[in-house]
């Protein structure tokens, strides 16, 4: 399991990129070597690339900044004043504080942040205006201040005609149990825990249990694009056959943590060790969500590091 995690976590594997496709091929081979037949689901995908890294000056001082995926470029250097505006939600779940960069009266871009932690993130809807993400320490400095001067630049490119690939094992059962994990990662991260660990755990189960269907989704890090597409393309009868969806995500470090549908909580509690924290309110940011929304019972394995 560790060998596989190491092998696929050498570089970041952003959905749609060549590196992600290389990892796809490794995973297909692995599943085939375990005796599974594979179906590939190829899906059109809009990719994104930073051409020139973001730069941001606040009141003439250089500030550490991250780009926000699926946001546009500045035309040269954008100069303006910062004004707080409505917050933004990503992944249907995470709330970000948002500022407009206003040049005269026009909004030319945005700065987003959170008071606790930030992580590389995309905005769910493609935006022509550029977004810049700043750390909580910067938020503390700009909060409650007025007439903050901004200078910012970024160049990014949308790439059409890209594809992502869900890897699905063939299974003709009338009552299906699916185990899923996603294999893409965020930009600039090896994604060992997030989520090569889940892929590794799935492979361990796939070694011995041939009755289960296994799905390795791609583009989870793009608001669950892979799993959303999979569920969207299922026919009603196919959806009905799914009795349980088990989702494994970031199980590499920390205390075991489980989220499950209320309906099946008693069974889950009986099976899991008493030390596992169990929550019965499934929430949007994970691959089980598109299934759960369609009425499929779900179990989600995660870990929390404290
Ligand atoms: Zn992730």
What does it look like?
The strands form two sheets. Strands 1, 2, 3, 5, 6, 7, 9, 10, 11, 12, 13, 14, 15 and 16 form a 14-stranded mixed β-sheet that branches. The protein is built from eight helices and 16 strands. With 306 residues, the protein is an alpha/beta fold. The chain has helices at residues 2-8, 18-33, 136-142, 192-208, 225-232, 236-241, 265-271, 288-293; strands at residues 38-58, 61-62, 65-67, 69-71, 78-90, 94-103, 106-113, 122-127, 131-134, 149-169, 176-182, 213-217, 242-248, 255-260, 277-279, 298-304. The protein is elongated and about 60 Å long. Helix 1 (2-8) packs across helix 4 (192-208). It folds into two domains: 2-37 and 170-304, 3-Layer(aba) Sandwich (Aminopeptidase), CATH 3.40.630; 48-160, Glucose Oxidase, domain 1, CATH 3.50.30. Zinc ion binds next to helix 4.
Primary descriptors:
306 residues, alpha/beta, Aminopeptidase, Glucose Oxidase, domain 1, 16 strands, binds zinc ion
Short description:
The protein is of the alpha/beta class and 306 residues long.
The CATH class of the largest domain, by name, is Alpha Beta
Which percent band covers the strand fraction?
35-45%
Distance between the termini: 24 Å
Roughly what percent helix? 10-25%
SSE order, one letter for each helix or strand: HHEEEEEEEEEHEEHEHHEEHEHE
Number of strands: 16
What summary fits the major beta sheet?
14 strands, mixed
- Which ligands occur here? zinc ion
What is the count of distinct domains? Answer: 2
Structural class: alpha/beta
CATH topology of the largest domain: Aminopeptidase
